[in-house]
Prior knowledge:
The protein is an alpha/beta fold. It folds into two domains: 9-185 and 222-246, NAD(P)-binding Rossmann-like Domain (Rossmann fold, 3-Layer(aba) Sandwich), CATH 3.40.50.720; 188-220, no CATH class. It has ten helices and seven strands. It has helices spanning 18-29, 41-53, 68-79, 104-130, 143-146, 152-171, 190-199, 204-213, 223-234, 252-255, and strands spanning 9-13, 33-38, 57-62, 86-89, 134-139, 177-184, 245-248. A seven-stranded parallel beta sheet has the order 3-2-1-4-5-6-7, sandwiched between helices. The longest helix is centred in the middle third of the chain and has 27 residues, at 104-130. The relative contact order is 0.15. The structure holds nicotinamide-adenine-dinucleotide. Nicotinamide-adenine-dinucleotide is lined by residues 13-14, 16-20, 37-40, 43, 64-66, 90-93, 113, 117, 139, 141, 184, 186-187, 189-192.
Amino acid sequence: xxxxxxxxxxxxxxGGSGIGKAISIALAEQGAEVHILEVNKIPAKxxxxxxxxxxxxxxxxxxxxxxxxxxxxxxxxxxxxxxxxILVNNAGIAHIGNVELTSExxxxxxxxxxxxxxxxxxxxxxxxxxxxxxVILNMxxxxxxxxxxxxxxxxxxxxxxxxxxxxVAKDYLTYGIRCNSISPARVHTPFVDGYLKQNYxxxxxxxxxxxxxxxxxxxxxxPEEIANLAVYLSSDEASFITGTDFPIDGGFIRLNG
Length: 257
Ligand SMILES: NC(=O)c1ccc[n+]([C@@H]2O[C@H](COP(=O)([O-])OP(=O)(O)OC[C@H]3O[C@@H](n4cnc5c(N)ncnc54)[C@H](O)[C@@H]3O)[C@@H](O)[C@H]2O)c1
Protein backbone atom coordinates (compact mmCIF):
# COMPACT_ATOMS: atom_id res chain seq x y z
CA UNK A 1 0.00 0.00 0.00
CA UNK A 2 1.27 3.49 -0.83
CA UNK A 3 1.43 6.07 1.99
CA UNK A 4 1.55 3.24 4.53
CA UNK A 5 1.98 4.49 8.10
CA UNK A 6 1.86 1.13 9.85
CA UNK A 7 3.96 1.10 13.05
CA UNK A 8 4.26 4.90 13.01
CA UNK A 9 3.26 6.89 16.07
CA UNK A 10 1.79 10.31 15.34
CA UNK A 11 0.95 13.32 17.49
CA UNK A 12 -1.70 15.71 16.21
CA UNK A 13 -2.46 18.93 18.10
CA UNK A 14 -5.99 20.30 17.95
CA GLY A 15 -7.33 16.99 16.65
CA GLY A 16 -10.77 17.50 18.17
CA SER A 17 -12.12 19.66 15.37
CA GLY A 18 -11.85 20.64 11.71
CA ILE A 19 -8.56 20.08 9.92
CA GLY A 20 -6.86 18.39 12.90
CA LYS A 21 -9.71 15.93 13.24
CA ALA A 22 -9.54 15.06 9.53
CA ILE A 23 -5.75 14.63 9.77
CA SER A 24 -6.06 12.38 12.84
CA ILE A 25 -8.59 10.17 11.06
CA ALA A 26 -6.58 10.06 7.81
CA LEU A 27 -3.28 9.16 9.54
CA ALA A 28 -5.05 6.40 11.50
CA GLU A 29 -6.59 5.04 8.29
CA GLN A 30 -3.05 4.57 6.96
CA GLY A 31 -2.17 2.55 10.05
CA ALA A 32 -0.61 5.14 12.38
CA GLU A 33 -1.20 5.15 16.13
CA VAL A 34 -2.55 8.65 16.67
CA HIS A 35 -2.22 10.72 19.85
CA ILE A 36 -4.48 13.76 19.91
CA LEU A 37 -3.31 16.70 22.06
CA GLU A 38 -6.29 18.94 22.71
CA VAL A 39 -7.28 21.73 25.03
CA ASN A 40 -10.86 20.43 24.64
CA LYS A 41 -10.72 16.83 25.81
CA ILE A 42 -14.33 15.90 24.92
CA PRO A 43 -14.12 16.47 21.14
CA ALA A 44 -10.65 14.87 21.17
CA LYS A 45 -12.15 11.78 22.81
CA UNK A 46 -14.88 11.77 20.16
CA UNK A 47 -12.28 11.82 17.37
CA UNK A 48 -10.38 8.98 19.07
CA UNK A 49 -13.60 6.99 19.48
CA UNK A 50 -14.46 7.51 15.79
CA UNK A 51 -11.01 6.19 14.82
CA UNK A 52 -11.26 3.20 17.16
CA UNK A 53 -14.76 2.35 15.90
CA UNK A 54 -13.24 1.93 12.43
CA UNK A 55 -10.47 -0.35 13.80
CA UNK A 56 -7.78 2.31 14.11
CA UNK A 57 -5.53 3.26 17.03
CA UNK A 58 -6.02 6.58 18.80
CA UNK A 59 -5.77 8.21 22.20
CA UNK A 60 -6.92 11.62 23.42
CA UNK A 61 -4.77 13.71 25.78
CA UNK A 62 -5.93 16.89 27.50
CA UNK A 63 -3.12 19.32 26.73
CA UNK A 64 -2.85 23.06 26.20
CA UNK A 65 -0.07 23.53 23.64
CA UNK A 66 0.55 27.03 24.98
CA UNK A 67 1.57 25.61 28.36
CA UNK A 68 5.12 24.26 28.22
CA UNK A 69 4.87 22.21 31.42
CA UNK A 70 1.67 20.58 30.18
CA UNK A 71 3.22 19.83 26.77
CA UNK A 72 6.43 18.35 28.21
CA UNK A 73 4.49 16.15 30.63
CA UNK A 74 2.13 14.88 27.91
CA UNK A 75 4.80 14.30 25.26
CA UNK A 76 7.22 12.66 27.71
CA UNK A 77 4.49 10.21 28.73
CA UNK A 78 3.80 9.33 25.08
CA UNK A 79 7.53 9.08 24.27
CA UNK A 80 8.08 6.76 27.24
CA UNK A 81 6.01 4.16 25.39
CA UNK A 82 7.92 4.40 22.10
CA UNK A 83 9.36 6.64 19.41
CA UNK A 84 7.40 9.56 18.02
CA UNK A 85 7.55 9.39 14.23
CA ILE A 86 5.20 12.18 13.19
CA LEU A 87 4.31 15.51 14.83
CA VAL A 88 1.51 17.56 13.29
CA ASN A 89 1.36 21.06 14.78
CA ASN A 90 -2.19 21.90 13.78
CA ALA A 91 -3.74 23.67 16.80
CA GLY A 92 -4.29 27.33 16.07
CA ILE A 93 -6.57 30.22 16.88
CA ALA A 94 -7.59 33.31 14.96
CA HIS A 95 -7.98 37.00 15.60
CA ILE A 96 -9.70 39.52 13.40
CA GLY A 97 -8.48 43.09 13.16
CA ASN A 98 -5.79 45.36 11.71
CA VAL A 99 -2.91 46.59 13.89
CA GLU A 100 -5.06 49.33 15.46
CA LEU A 101 -7.70 46.82 16.47
CA THR A 102 -5.17 44.39 17.93
CA SER A 103 -4.62 44.91 21.65
CA GLU A 104 -1.61 43.71 23.61
CA UNK A 105 -3.82 40.99 25.10
CA UNK A 106 -4.94 39.91 21.60
CA UNK A 107 -1.43 39.59 20.23
CA UNK A 108 -0.22 37.73 23.33
CA UNK A 109 -3.13 35.27 23.13
CA UNK A 110 -2.56 34.45 19.44
CA UNK A 111 1.21 34.25 19.97
CA UNK A 112 0.80 31.81 22.89
CA UNK A 113 -1.03 29.22 20.77
CA UNK A 114 0.09 29.77 17.18
CA UNK A 115 3.80 30.40 17.79
CA UNK A 116 4.69 29.23 21.29
CA UNK A 117 2.45 26.18 20.94
CA UNK A 118 4.37 25.06 17.84
CA UNK A 119 7.72 25.75 19.53
CA UNK A 120 6.60 23.90 22.71
CA UNK A 121 5.65 20.74 20.82
CA UNK A 122 8.77 20.68 18.63
CA UNK A 123 10.96 21.43 21.66
CA UNK A 124 9.41 18.56 23.61
CA UNK A 125 9.51 16.03 20.73
CA UNK A 126 12.80 16.69 19.01
CA UNK A 127 15.12 14.77 21.34
CA UNK A 128 13.03 11.64 20.94
CA UNK A 129 12.72 12.13 17.18
CA UNK A 130 16.47 12.63 16.68
CA UNK A 131 17.05 8.99 17.63
CA UNK A 132 15.50 7.51 14.50
CA UNK A 133 14.28 10.44 12.40
CA UNK A 134 10.74 11.56 11.73
CA VAL A 135 8.40 14.09 10.22
CA ILE A 136 7.25 17.46 11.53
CA LEU A 137 4.34 19.10 9.78
CA ASN A 138 3.26 22.62 10.72
CA MET A 139 -0.10 24.16 9.84
CA UNK A 140 0.62 27.61 8.44
CA UNK A 141 -1.82 29.47 6.19
CA UNK A 142 -1.91 31.47 2.97
CA UNK A 143 -1.93 34.41 5.42
CA UNK A 144 1.79 33.72 6.00
CA UNK A 145 2.58 34.54 2.39
CA UNK A 146 0.05 37.21 1.46
CA UNK A 147 -0.84 38.83 4.82
CA UNK A 148 -4.65 38.66 4.77
CA UNK A 149 -6.39 41.99 5.38
CA UNK A 150 -7.78 42.51 8.88
CA UNK A 151 -5.80 39.54 10.18
CA UNK A 152 -2.72 41.33 11.51
CA UNK A 153 -1.92 39.07 14.49
CA UNK A 154 -2.99 35.87 12.74
CA UNK A 155 -0.93 36.59 9.60
CA UNK A 156 2.09 37.49 11.74
CA UNK A 157 1.94 34.24 13.69
CA UNK A 158 1.55 32.15 10.53
CA UNK A 159 4.61 33.88 9.07
CA UNK A 160 6.49 32.69 12.14
CA UNK A 161 5.21 29.14 11.58
CA UNK A 162 6.69 29.28 8.10
CA UNK A 163 10.12 30.42 9.28
CA UNK A 164 10.12 27.95 12.20
CA UNK A 165 9.57 25.29 9.53
CA UNK A 166 12.61 26.42 7.52
CA UNK A 167 14.78 26.72 10.63
CA VAL A 168 13.92 23.28 12.03
CA ALA A 169 14.29 21.68 8.57
CA LYS A 170 17.86 23.02 8.35
CA ASP A 171 18.94 22.23 11.91
CA TYR A 172 17.68 18.63 11.88
CA LEU A 173 18.30 17.56 8.29
CA THR A 174 21.20 15.37 9.31
CA TYR A 175 19.06 13.61 11.92
CA GLY A 176 16.65 12.35 9.27
CA ILE A 177 13.93 14.72 10.37
CA ARG A 178 11.88 16.29 7.59
CA CYS A 179 10.00 19.46 8.44
CA ASN A 180 7.41 21.03 6.13
CA SER A 181 4.37 23.24 6.40
CA ILE A 182 0.95 23.33 4.81
CA SER A 183 -0.72 26.62 3.92
CA PRO A 184 -4.43 26.27 3.32
CA ALA A 185 -6.71 29.04 2.09
CA ARG A 186 -10.17 29.03 3.65
CA VAL A 187 -11.31 25.58 4.70
CA HIS A 188 -14.88 24.87 5.80
CA THR A 189 -14.48 23.92 9.48
CA PRO A 190 -16.49 24.68 12.65
CA PHE A 191 -14.21 27.70 13.03
CA VAL A 192 -15.64 29.28 9.86
CA ASP A 193 -19.25 28.56 10.89
CA GLY A 194 -18.63 30.06 14.34
CA TYR A 195 -17.03 33.16 12.80
CA LEU A 196 -20.02 33.72 10.49
CA LYS A 197 -22.54 33.17 13.26
CA GLN A 198 -20.78 35.61 15.54
CA ASN A 199 -19.99 38.34 13.02
CA TYR A 200 -22.80 38.08 10.46
CA UNK A 201 -25.93 36.85 12.25
CA UNK A 202 -28.75 36.35 9.75
CA UNK A 203 -26.36 36.76 6.79
CA UNK A 204 -24.45 33.52 7.25
CA UNK A 205 -25.42 32.04 3.85
CA UNK A 206 -24.55 35.14 1.87
CA UNK A 207 -21.22 35.58 3.67
CA UNK A 208 -20.39 31.90 3.29
CA UNK A 209 -20.83 32.32 -0.46
CA UNK A 210 -18.70 35.46 -0.46
CA UNK A 211 -15.91 33.76 1.50
CA UNK A 212 -16.13 30.78 -0.88
CA UNK A 213 -15.55 33.06 -3.88
CA UNK A 214 -12.30 34.44 -2.43
CA UNK A 215 -10.79 31.18 -3.64
CA UNK A 216 -10.56 31.44 -7.47
CA UNK A 217 -11.75 27.81 -7.63
CA UNK A 218 -15.09 29.09 -6.22
CA UNK A 219 -15.38 27.19 -2.96
CA UNK A 220 -13.71 26.58 0.40
CA UNK A 221 -11.42 23.61 0.92
CA UNK A 222 -12.58 20.49 2.74
CA PRO A 223 -10.68 19.29 5.84
CA GLU A 224 -10.20 15.91 4.13
CA GLU A 225 -8.35 17.59 1.24
CA ILE A 226 -5.84 19.05 3.69
CA ALA A 227 -5.61 15.69 5.47
CA ASN A 228 -4.70 13.90 2.23
CA LEU A 229 -1.74 16.25 1.76
CA ALA A 230 -0.74 15.70 5.40
CA VAL A 231 -0.78 11.92 4.85
CA TYR A 232 1.45 12.24 1.81
CA LEU A 233 3.94 14.54 3.53
CA SER A 234 4.04 12.23 6.57
CA SER A 235 4.72 9.14 4.47
CA ASP A 236 7.98 7.73 3.14
CA GLU A 237 6.73 8.56 -0.38
CA ALA A 238 7.61 12.18 0.50
CA SER A 239 11.15 11.27 1.61
CA PHE A 240 12.77 13.86 -0.72
CA ILE A 241 10.72 16.76 0.66
CA THR A 242 11.90 19.00 3.49
CA GLY A 243 11.98 22.72 4.28
CA THR A 244 9.04 23.45 2.00
CA ASP A 245 5.68 25.14 2.39
CA PHE A 246 2.73 23.68 0.51
CA PRO A 247 -0.11 26.06 -0.36
CA ILE A 248 -3.41 24.17 -0.82
CA ASP A 249 -5.61 27.06 -1.71
CA GLY A 250 -7.89 26.73 -4.74
CA GLY A 251 -5.62 29.20 -6.55
CA PHE A 252 -5.75 31.85 -3.78
CA ILE A 253 -2.08 32.89 -3.85
CA ARG A 254 -1.29 32.71 -7.55
CA LEU A 255 -4.59 33.17 -9.38
CA ASN A 256 -6.28 36.04 -7.52
CA GLY A 257 -6.28 39.36 -9.38
N1 LIG B 1 -10.09 26.73 8.55
C1 LIG B 1 -9.36 27.51 7.79
O1 LIG B 1 -9.90 28.21 6.91
C2 LIG B 1 -7.85 27.53 7.91
C3 LIG B 1 -7.09 28.09 6.87
C4 LIG B 1 -5.71 28.12 6.98
C5 LIG B 1 -5.08 27.61 8.10
N2 LIG B 1 -5.85 27.08 9.09
C6 LIG B 1 -5.15 26.56 10.27
O2 LIG B 1 -5.46 25.20 10.44
C7 LIG B 1 -5.46 24.86 11.83
C8 LIG B 1 -6.77 24.22 12.22
O3 LIG B 1 -7.83 25.10 11.91
P1 LIG B 1 -9.38 24.66 11.98
O4 LIG B 1 -10.09 25.56 11.04
O5 LIG B 1 -9.49 23.19 11.83
O6 LIG B 1 -9.75 25.15 13.45
P2 LIG B 1 -10.80 24.59 14.53
O7 LIG B 1 -11.08 25.74 15.41
O8 LIG B 1 -11.94 23.89 13.86
O9 LIG B 1 -9.91 23.50 15.31
C9 LIG B 1 -8.78 23.88 16.06
C10 LIG B 1 -8.63 22.92 17.22
O10 LIG B 1 -7.46 23.32 17.96
C11 LIG B 1 -7.77 23.22 19.34
N3 LIG B 1 -6.94 24.15 20.11
C12 LIG B 1 -7.04 25.51 20.16
N4 LIG B 1 -6.16 26.01 21.03
C13 LIG B 1 -5.48 24.96 21.55
C14 LIG B 1 -4.46 24.84 22.52
N5 LIG B 1 -3.98 25.92 23.15
N6 LIG B 1 -4.00 23.60 22.82
C15 LIG B 1 -4.50 22.50 22.20
N7 LIG B 1 -5.49 22.55 21.30
C16 LIG B 1 -5.97 23.77 20.97
C17 LIG B 1 -9.25 23.60 19.44
O11 LIG B 1 -9.82 23.11 20.64
C18 LIG B 1 -9.82 22.95 18.20
O12 LIG B 1 -10.27 21.64 18.44
C19 LIG B 1 -5.16 26.18 12.58
O13 LIG B 1 -3.78 26.26 12.85
C20 LIG B 1 -5.57 27.23 11.58
O14 LIG B 1 -4.89 28.45 11.77
C21 LIG B 1 -7.22 27.02 9.04
